[in-house]
Amino acid sequence: MIKELQLRLSPREASSLSAIKEVVSKETATGIDIITSVRIIKRSIDARQRNIFVNLKVRAYIDEQPEELQYTPTEYRDVSGCRQAIVVGAGPGGLFAALRLIERGIRPIVIERGKNVRDRKLDLARITKTHEVDPESNYCFGEGGAGAYSDGKLFTRSKKRGSVEKILNVFCQHGASTDILIDAHPHIGTDRLPRVIEAMRNTIISCGGEVHFQTKMDSLIIEGDEVKGVIVSSPSGGQGGSGELRGGVILATGHSARDVYRYLQSSNIDIEAKGIAVGVRLEHPSHLIDQIQYHNLKGRGEYLPAAEYSFVTQVDGRGVYSFCMCPGGFVIPAATGPRQIVVNGMSPANRGTRWSNSGMVVEIHPEDVDGDDALCMMRYQERLEELCWQQGNMRQTAPAQRMLDFVNKKVSFDLPESSYAPGLVSSPLHFWLPEFVSNRLRDGFRKFGQQSRGFLTNDACLIAVETRTSSPVRILRDRETLMHVRLRGLYPCGEGAGYAGGIVSAAIDGERCADMLAESYS
Fold this sequence. Notes:
The protein has helices at 17-28, 92-103, 117-130, 145-148, 164-173, 193-206, 258-266, 286-294, 376-391, 403-407, 429-432, 435-451, 494-497, 503-521, and strands at residues 2-9, 35-46, 53-62, 84-88, 107-111, 210-212, 216-223, 226-233, 243-246, 248-251, 271-273, 276-285, 312-315, 318-326, 330-333, 343-346, 355-364, 398-402, 424-426, 461-466, 473-475, 490-492. Helix 2 packs parallel to helix 6 (193-206) and helix 2 runs parallel beside helix 14. The radius of gyration is 24 Å and the shape is globular. By secondary structure, the chain is an alpha+beta fold. The protein has a seven-stranded mixed beta sheet with strand order 13-14-17-12-20-18-19. Strands 6-5-4-10-22 form a five-stranded parallel beta sheet. The chain has a three-stranded antiparallel beta sheet with strand order 1-3-2, with helices on one face. The protein has 14 helices and 22 strands.
């Protein structure tokens, strides 16, 4: 017999399967010796009141053995001799597009401008050591895209557009913990996700597909009103060589491929400016966030994870909100070229560092900035990132200010210890950040401090500047076919095309684009 139960337990009761099994025995009036197994199906933490509870949905196996696998595998076939398609970019959108093409009997050729996930790690370490950014291998470019080394959070609200459960199962099939199928806010961790991505690449290759690193798309092959493939080059001795690759094209280049946006505009390929959000990374001691969110001076205690938060408000007609919250994490340097400072956040799987951070950003619309062309928002990002680089002593040392000092327009004469490895320099962010942004952040922080006592504090630090929250450009595509509005055979995909936000929604969009390309082939 199999029974499913909804349980509301204390953190201690929910901390081990043996304790949960005892609760199930009492709830079902069943002897504990005949409960062969208990599996957690869903798990969430209710921290709204002083007494914290863990909500569990469990499946109890009574005199019955559980299924061998805790996830649903996808079958991938050999596509060696099949018709091919080109996938530009090996981020989540591109990787899931490639895997879905294999399911549909199409041979994917994946080209990625950056390095494989292992070699890429060396270039990330160099940013901290030498303050030099490789424009082709950094926290945004390389196998796995911006998500590979910047957290691996899998929470999304994109359930209406595709199967979130399918995406999570594919991750599990390639080595992710099955906990991601259970938790309300699933998270793989920046220390574990690279191995998962490597396994996905190996699946693509073993099924007859190709993956070429350090290989860049220079242009599309356009014949009449149809894209027939791409022209590629490998300036750094990449695997793809130079020349033409023929087939339908899924363009999944990520939100930081600015040279691609410039190429599209210069080639009169339909794009438009898209709203973004910019601001700072806000870093607190993780123990302080635990105290606030769990309503306990002792913090998280023995059985609770590092606490999360989410804030949102409106200030003068624009949203101000927390973004990409990383409990027990790091702030990282995410620039993609010289004369830039960009910050982002990530967390290891155990979320065990002494800091918690999130983006704190202000919504910006195209009409809020100078210019009225498709690249006006991108240029706004570039100007702000270069200004930040100048304030950071023209290195990757990031300008920073204590939180309460920023709100009160005071210079911080010293800064708290930070997870940001390249180092911080005290800077009057309230003075040089765009007034449009700083005034709204200031009012937003006051409101958030009223909502959560202790949140607005000088123990927290603002680190500038967070600009890569989403793509500044949308590549126009047909709503039904997902094909470019004017060019057949071109499928703009994921975050870089302006149709996703985060790992899971980009992966879903990749699968949808692959399906539409497969339909066009058939």
